[in-house]
Predict the structure of Superoxide dismutase.
Amino acid sequence: MLSRAARSTRRTVVPALGSLASRQKHSLPDLPYDYGALEPHINAQIMQLHHSKHHATYVNNLNAIEEKYLEALQKGDITAQVALQPGLKFNGGGHINHSIFWTNLSPKGGGEPKGELLEAIKRDFGSFDKFKEKLTTVSVGVQGSGWGWLGFSKEQGRLQIAACFNQDPLQGTTGLIPLLGIDVWEHAYYLQYKNVRPDYLKAIWNVINWENVTERYMACKK
């Protein structure tokens, strides 16, 4: 006969698995602009491939892995759960990162932020130019594939710059809340800038959507 604690645990676990089974699948978000809207800084061919092929692949893989993970949970197969976690991290991170990235860009972007975000950048990095130089340097220096990030530390109440390799999500791996991400995988720039990552990074500042970055900063301060 089951103990009271065991019966309680069973009542808790079964609804949890049921909610997983009824979850909605992840979907590819629409871009808030046309594929060619960021030209000449990022051309339409890159944007189309990056969004409709690369990001879509992360979404499709994430959905497939989550289904397998659910099966493993239902079977109590811990070995399978552990084996699936790298795929969850990679494809889940790819979906999270790109969903932020598209909104961080705008055909009306560029220039400098205003208001509280600009003041925070000056406080934490000395000036906007020093911040820009530091994030560019960190992004150029990512070995292989990855991301350069501006994040916010809730614990310290300050902005921080970080690099993440592959598709590691910023918050899930560092605890920093993502505000601005720069994709330095070659698929983000190779068709236009070849292997010259610094030229791509110089160009991308012309389409940074500071309104979006500011909204993210104000939200994480609440």
